[in-house]
Every structure is written in C-alpha cells, then in structure tokens.
Write a structure and sequence with these properties.
five-stranded antiparallel sheet, 583 residues, Helix Hairpins, Beta-Lactamase, 52% helix, alpha+beta
Length: 583
C-alpha cells in the first residue's frame, strides 16, 4: 500500500481495531462471568442438597414420608426445587409440581447416576417447568427403602443476563462498524476516489489513450488540477488526430501500391512492408518475419550490402523461386538515413506476367507468321506461274487453280481460328457474360448432325452412346463449335472406323466426351496438346488442312464456361477428349 493510502485509511483502521478489541474483551469477560456463575450455582446446589439430606434422611428412616413431603413443599420453586424419587422412579415429593401429575423419573440422567451411588450435577432443560435447570441428585438409603434427593435451581436469569450482554455487545460492534464504514466511505468518495481518478487518467493519457474522460470534482483543491489536465488532454487529442490523419493517408498510399515495398535494417530484417510485399513473400502469419538472407534471392545480398556501405542506389532484375513458380522481379534499392542509422528501402515490381506476355506475343507472332507463310507462298507461286506461262495446258492450269483454292481455304480457316481465339479472350476478360439457359443434349445432337456428311464421306460411323438431358447456362454456338472441333479432329486424324459421343453427369459436372478408336496420342504430348499451334504430326496435319488452333479453341470455350478440357489416350487404342462443365 502506498504511503498516501496508509495515511488516509490509518484512522478508520485504528478505530475499527479498537472496536473489535473491545468486543473481544467484552465477550471474553462475558464468557468468564457465565462460567463463574455456573460454577457457583453448582457449588451452592451441592451444599444445599447436603443440608437438606441431614433433615430428610432421619424422617425417611423413621418412615415419616408425609413429613418429608411437607418439608419439600415448604421450598419455593423460584429459589430451590426439591424432589424425592423412590427406587421405582416415582416422584414421592416435589416442591414445584403436584406429585400426581409427574411421570416416571427413572430415565433421568441424574436419577440413574444417583441410584448407582454416584452423586451428579448436570444442566438440562426441564420439560415439566419449561426452563433450563441445574440438577444435583444423591442417594438417601433408609430403613424403608432407597430414595434419591434431587435439588434444582433455574438458570434463566443468568442466561437472560448473558443474552442481554451479548445483544449490547453486538449493538456496540455494529455502531462501531457503522462509524468506521461511514468514515471509510467519506475518505473513499471525497478524498481517495478523486485522487485515483486523476492518477488513472494521467497514466492512460501517458500510455496514449486520449479518449479517457477526466472527472472534475465540484469542489476542493483537486478541481484546478483536474481542469488543467482536461485542457491538456483536449490539446493532445487535436494534435494526435492531425498526426493520425496524415499517417493514415500515407499508409493508404503505401498499401495501395502495386509494387512491393520493404524497409530493411542493415542486417536484412524488415521493419516495415506494405500489403503487396506481404502477398509476395507470404507475410500474413503473426510470426512471419522477412530477412533478405532467407528471401530466396541470394544475388541481392551482395548488392544490398554494397548499397548500404556506399549509399548508392541500385536496380537489378532477379529470379524469385517459389515452389509453384519462378517469378521475375525488378528490384530497386535506396539507402535512407534515419538518425545515425542507415536503412535500405526496396521497391519490387513483378515482371513475370509482362515477360510471359512478351514471350507469348513473340511466340504467337512467330507461329502465325510461320503458318501464314506456307499458304501465302503457295498462292504467290501459283499466281506467278499462271501469269508467266501463257501457253499452259488446261490440265496444268486446273492443277494450279486447285492449289490456289486449297491454300486460300487453309488461309481463311487460319484467320477464322485466330479471330475466334481473340474473341474468346475478350469474352474471358469481360466481367459480364451473355449466357442463357441451353439444352446441352440438343447441342450435342446438332454438332453430330453438322459432322455427319464428313463422317459418311470418310466411311466412319458417328454415334451417340449416351445423351443425358442437361440444362446449363452458356453460349450454345460456342459449345457447338467446341464439340464440332473435337469431332472433326477424330474424323480427320485418328484413323478410327467409329467415333462415339456421350453426355453424362457426375459430381456436379456435365461431361461431353468424344471417343475414337484410332492411333492415339503418346503421353509426352498430353501436357501441350491444347496449346496454340501445337501439332503432334506437323506435316500430316498440314497436309490434312489443320491449323493447330482447334484444341486451343476448345480449351478456351471450356474455360469461358468455368470448366476445363482434358485428354485420355493410350497409343494404339484411341483417344477420349472431354469437355467438363459445372452444372
């Protein structure tokens, strides 16, 4: 306890201790009085019993029971009660009650003890007199039988005195306790409580909690101090609100940046980073820590140490290896001087998508150029031949025209497929899709009907083995185009005598399957089979008019409908292409 509290509560504690000590002394004296009174009463009743014995015993020896009874009746029950009980337990004489109404006393404790030759003194409740009594019984042997002389005195007066004294003691303790309680309440509410309130408010304010309200006493010496503290708090609130607003603006800008930003100590530990850095390096768990040495970019360590040493900024493109992928990052480092310390500020831009798009764009342009070059070369060669050879035979001229028609169709198909892929990519990037509810089983039938003439010309059996009625949200024309592409691939490239179509439902997916029984596709081609311009047999595919974009279109149509395309194939046993769409 503080010295202030010891002083404030010293007086109530002293008064309370005095009241408790007085009560304990009084109770102790009361117990002594009660014990002394009872001891005197026992001694007096034993002496009186001995005196009565000298008078009553001769009367009993002479057979003068009536005289003994008259002697007992002469005593007042308020001062001394005398009773004579014969050997059968019957009351022969009693100074307090008529003998006829008294019952058998042989079960009384003092009577039994006296008949055994053991004079006894006990205190118990008298059912006949309805009060507490002290009894003393002794045996009176005579020529006319044995009797027990029992003397008794009431103890109610002493008990009443003790009870009254206890009541007075309790009242005194209650009065003293009330006095201490009132004094303590006064100290608590008028002195200690305002001091504690000001102390707690000052501690909360010093800890940074400026929302703490300061209670101002209506009067007293603490009022001016409380007003001054409240004024100071209001001024601090205004200043802190201004600082917090500026800091929140900076944090909002800091976390809204697309680039990852980290502030590092010279040992490589990050003391601050934004949301983009947390996403890039997975710093979301409470125990997440970033250290440059354990970041997975070892080539940056030497550059960071050199920058802190020389104070010169640097810029470097590094590879950040993660289990799922390797990212290309552009890292820029700046040295910041804070007091006497040097800190390293890193800004990191993710160039992975940019590099991937550049590579994809380059590959796509190269592939398109390569695919267009062949038919254009054939067309240009045929046209030049027609222009230069005036005396060309009709057969040669017809052959060149056939080449022109074939290569023109191939070039047209290639352009159409490229435009289809571009349209699909635009739709995939669009947030809103113009989907309607379509019957997928009808779409499968329409796609088969479109391909039946080509199947008949190639003498290939085209059948639907299962067609479960299925309704989904989607684009009917695109899904029909995807199924037609799969059927045409099976008819042209598989060499199968039979192609089976099916539509099934399983685990929340609608699956369209196109199965052939032809040459199949080797496992090494499976991961790339849906890539643009990827051809398993390039020369054969070009001879048959393939553009290398059909399966890529199928993949993008499935993805547009939030599904996916897959291949199951074993060389020599055919292929099964599937379009899986969520129901």
């Amino acid at each position: 306890m503080k010295s202030r509290d010891r002083i404030l509560f010293g007086l109530p504690i002293v008064i309370g201790c005095g009241v408790v000590l007085f009560g304990m002394l009084f109770y102790w004296q009361l117990r002594l009085f009660e014990a002394s009174y009872m001891q005197d009463a026992r001694r007096n009743i034993e002496q009186e019993a001995q005196l009565v014995e000298h008078i009553v015993r001769p009367l009993l020896d002479q057979g003068r029971l009536d005289d003994a009874r008259s002697f007992c009746d002469s005593f007042s029950s308020d001062t001394l009660r005398l009773s004579l009980i014969d050997a059968s337990g019957k009351v022969a004489a009693d100074s307090a009650e008529r003998v006829g109404i008294l019952g058998d006393h042989s079960d009384r404790v003092e009577i039994r003890a006296a008949f055994r030759g053991q004079p006894s003194t006990i205190e118990r409740y008298s059912e006949s007199l309805n009060q507490w009594m002290i009894y003393h019984a002794l045996l009176l042997p005579s020529n006319h039988g044995d009797y027990v002389l029992r003397t008794a005195v009431p103890t109610d007066r002493a008990r009443q005195m003790v009870v009254l004294a206890k009541q007075n003691m309790v009242l005194s303790l209650l009065f003293g306790g009330a006095l201490v309680f009132m004094l303590t309440l006064y100290i608590l509410h008028r002195v200690r409580k305002p001091i504690l309130a000001l102390q707690e408010a000052a501690m909360a304010i010093s800890a940074g909690d400026l929302s703490t309200s300061i209670a101002i006493p209506p009067r007293g010496v603490l009022r001016d101090l409380a007003i001054s503290l409240a004024t100071m708090t209001d001024q601090l609130k205004i200043q802190l609100a201004r600082v917090m607003h500026e800091r929140n603006q900076k944090d909002a800008i800091f976390n809204a940046m697309n680039e990852a930003v980290l502030l590092l100590l010279p040992n490589g530990d990050a003391i601050k980073y934004n949301r983009a850095a947390a996403v890039l390096f997975g710093l979301f768990t409470p125990d997440a820590r970033f250290n440059l040495a354990r970041s997975g970019m070892p080539e940056l360590i030497a550059k960071a140490h050199q920058a802190i040493k020389d104070g010169v900024p640097f810029e470097s493109e590094v590879a950040f290896r993660r289990p799922e992928a390797t990212l290309q990052l552009l890292v820029k480092g700046y040295v910041i001087h804070q007091d006497e310390d040097k800190l390293l500020l890193l800004t990191i831009s993710d160039l992975t998508q940019q590099r991937r798009m550049e590579s994809f764009r380059s590959d796509f342009i190269a592939n398109v150029s390569h695919e267009i070059k062949t038919p254009l070369t054939c067309i240009v060669g045929a046209v030049e031949t027609l222009q230069e050879e005036e005396d060309m035979t009709p057969e040669a001229k017809a052959k060149l025209l056939a080449i022109l028609a074939q290569q023109s169709r191939r070039l047209n198909l290639l352009v159409q497929d490229i435009l289809s892929l571009a349209a699909l990519e635009r739709k995939q990037n669009s947030k809103k899709q113009d989907f309607t509810e379509i019957k997928l089983d009808s779409t499968l039938i329409n796609a088969m009907n479109l391909c039946l003439p080509k199947a008949d010309d190639a003498h290939i059996e085209l059948v639907i083995t299962e067609n479960t009625p299925t309704n989904i949200q989607g684009d009917c024309q695109l899904l029909e185009q995807a199924v037609v592409n799969l059927i045409n691939n099976a008819l042209v490239y598989s060499g199968s005598p039979r192609v089976e179509l099916s539509l099934t439902q399983h685990n929340g997916l609608a699956t369209i399957s196109v199965k052939d029984f032809g040459i199949g596709i080797a496992p090494e081609h499976h991961p790339r089979i849906f890539e643009r311009f990827y051809l398993v047999h390039k020369e054969r595919s070009r001879q048959l008019g393939g553009t290398g974009l059909g399966l890529a279109i199928v993949k993008h149509i499935a993805q547009l409908h939030h599904g996916y395309a897959e291949l199951e194939s074993t060389p020599g046993k055919g292929c099964t292409f599937k379009i899986n769409l969520p129901l």
